[in-house]
């Protein structure tokens, strides 16, 4: 069971980390049918600008929603809005940490706004933004 809106508080934080693999990228490509050459290890185009193939942004976004669904609130919720800026690419083999922080709670609407920051194994910010979620349960059932 996750947190209810009354269990959450301003400044509350949670995070998760994950290393993205070539298999993760292939699975994402198959599910989305997005076969952009910058995601393909056997293509040459990404070598013009990067040292390794780029991980689709959708996978980094998935890590963010994983923190939300597992930790804050860690229960039934719906993503209402997302706003992200990708500062640097994520590459295969990078360990990415997604951190969320509660920055606003609207108890009338059951909305929670969370600041989002993702950084790589070197501590470099790769994504920043915010999400608004609708927390499904207002009280314990």
UniProtKB/TrEMBL annotation:
<feature type="domain" description="MaoC-like">
    <location>
        <begin position="13"/>
        <end position="115"/>
    </location>
</feature>
<protein>
    <submittedName>
        <fullName>3-hydroxybutyryl-CoA dehydratase</fullName>
    </submittedName>
</protein>
<dbReference type="InterPro" id="IPR029069">
    <property type="entry name" value="HotDog_dom_sf"/>
</dbReference>
<dbReference type="GO" id="GO:0019171">
    <property type="term" value="F:(3R)-hydroxyacyl-[acyl-carrier-protein] dehydratase activity"/>
</dbReference>
<dbReference type="GO" id="GO:0006633">
    <property type="term" value="P:fatty acid biosynthetic process"/>
</dbReference>
<dbReference type="InterPro" id="IPR002539">
    <property type="entry name" value="MaoC-like_dom"/>
</dbReference>
<dbReference type="Pfam" id="PF01575">
    <property type="entry name" value="MaoC_dehydratas"/>
</dbReference>
<dbReference type="InterPro" id="IPR050965">
    <property type="entry name" value="UPF0336/Enoyl-CoA_hydratase"/>
</dbReference>
């Amino acid at each position: 069971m996750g947190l209810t809106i009354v269990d959450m508080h301003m400044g509350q934080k949670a995070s998760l980390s994950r290393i993205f693999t070539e298999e993760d990228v292939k699975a994402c490509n198959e599910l989305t049918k997005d076969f952009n050459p910058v995601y393909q290890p056997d293509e040459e185009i990404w070598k013009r600008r990067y040292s390794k193939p780029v991980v689709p942004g959708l996978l980094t976004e998935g890590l963010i929603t994983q923190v939300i669904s597992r930790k804050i609130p860690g229960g039934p919720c719906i993503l209402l809005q997302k706003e992200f800026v990708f500062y640097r690419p994520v590459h295969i083999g990078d360990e990415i940490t997604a951190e969320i922080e509660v920055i606003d709670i609207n108890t009338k609407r059951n909305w929670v706004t969370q600041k989002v920051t993702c950084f790589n194994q070197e501590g470099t910010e790769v994504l920043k933004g915010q999400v608004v979620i609708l927390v499904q349960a207002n009280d314990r059932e």
